[in-house]
Amino acid sequence: MAPTPARLWRSRPVRLTAVAALVLGAGVVALTTGARTAPAPMGEVLPVPVSVRPAADASYTLPPDAVVHTEAGSAEAAKVGAYLAGLLRPSTGYALPVVQDGGGKGISLLLTGADPVVGSQGYRLDVTGEAVVIRARTGAGLFNGVQTLRQLLPPKVESPTAVPGPWTVRGGRIVDYPRFPYRGAMLDVARHFLPVETVKRYIDRIALYKINYLHLHLSDDQGWRIAVDSRPRLAAYGGRTQVGGGPGGHYTKAQYREIVDHAARRYVTVVPEIDLPGHTNAALASYAELNCDGRARPPYTGTDVGFSSLCTTKEEVHTFVKDVLGEVAALTPGPYLHIGGDEARATPTARYAAFMNRVQPMVAATGKTVVGWHQIGEPGVRHQEGRVLQYWGRTGSDPLVAEAVARGARVVMSPANRAYLDMKYDPETVPGQKWAGYVEVRDAYDWDPGSHLEGVPASAVLGVEAPLWTEAISTEEEIEYMAFPRLPAVAELGWSPGATHDWAAFARRLGAQGPRWAVMGIGFHRSPQVGWDEQGD
Prior knowledge:
By secondary structure, the chain is of the alpha/beta class. It has helices spanning 5-11, 75-92, 139-152, 196-207, 233-236, 253-265, 281-286, 315-331, 349-365, 399-406, 416-419, 441-445, 476-483, 486-495, 503-511, 514-520, and strands spanning 20-24, 27-31, 51-61, 68-70, 98-99, 106-110, 123-127, 131-135, 168-176, 182-188, 213-217, 219-220, 223-224, 269-276, 336-340, 369-373, 388-391, 410-413, 461-468. An eight-stranded parallel beta barrel has the order 10-11-14-15-16-17-18-19, surrounded by seven helices. It has a seven-stranded mixed beta sheet with strand order 3-9-7-8-6-4-5. The chain has a two-stranded antiparallel sheet with strand order 1-2. Helix 4 (196-207) runs parallel beside helix 6. It is globular.
């Protein structure tokens, strides 16, 4: 029996256009770029702000001759101003010149006057009848304030072509700053290679929800995705495969820098991962000397894990690791370098610990902080100052993680049964996996990173991350469908105060994002747990 239209919507990714007819049950609802005319209520954004004080008697409407003012003499404020004007010009059709004059009528982005409480990532947004003013202490804070302003404008502001206004924002004041400094999303480009433009579009979309780290899983059994000058066969040969036997691919150094630079312009920091000592078949296939028997392994295109290992007792393997990590670190200006460390079942326990005890100082020598999956907390692995464990387990207790925290480690929370975006929503979901269970949007939202693990206090939690593995996902459409609406749920957990956690309120604000995603062309999962705002009014 053919599925009903409603079931088709939920069971496969659908890319929406700005004008789309959606078949819902027996009814047809038209979504258009001009659907919403009423401004969003102050504070009805994702993630929810720390403090909102509406002014019911005030609102600001962007006029055709509006100007974006920035802090005089500040290149950082001017950069954010140019970004904002670039967002608004296509849909409004307005010229929106950016001037460095310290403020005025229109929209002002200022690096003075913000309360110290907002810190390095927060902002204050004031809307009156004459102006919108965003104040922050850094460019990142201004950028985050712009994302809030963006959501307070009608969804049609995302249109790539000019559409009728009005462009009205309700009056009031928002004071906002994050709960955790690290709010990440991960893309696995190793199992299925993803083009540069796909990665850049993902960065643009996660930035809307104040995600500030992009973790790139650059190497695995199925493919090596980053060019390394000292070991050219890693990319040239090890990058030729992917899951299912497709053509694979890799990023040249110039392409990788393009991704890093694009992310930086969105105040997103790239965290590169070279998974060691397991998940290394692409490397073992590229260089025979990395194997204990000196024989290169055949390329691998399946999805099993835990079968591969570098020969950790060979000195040339340690030279290899040092060279590779040094080159990747030099390409990446951010503070973190991820060394994987998970599912190394083919590496004997004692050898695993000895290997990690040599690799962690190599990372420190590049000037980076060690990040690894939580298995780097195994007994025998020494604590490296400042290191970060990324927890992906499915339980609320892990003594090894608690012990690592007691020794000074910090934790990024990515529990697979809550934060893994490649898990199916329900049995009808077509892409994705289910080994960690089905993860609907409420599952992704209803947990607390600060109290999720016994023995790991909120003070030890660096933040949250939503990984998206690609064993069973290969297209940009599938990525969108699996990330939205769950990624904004994880983003809110990382940004908003714990006291604001409220499923009903979150679901209402999430449902209002539907028309915005429609205009942006994002094909999202219409979770039945959410009352989606069809018209956007």
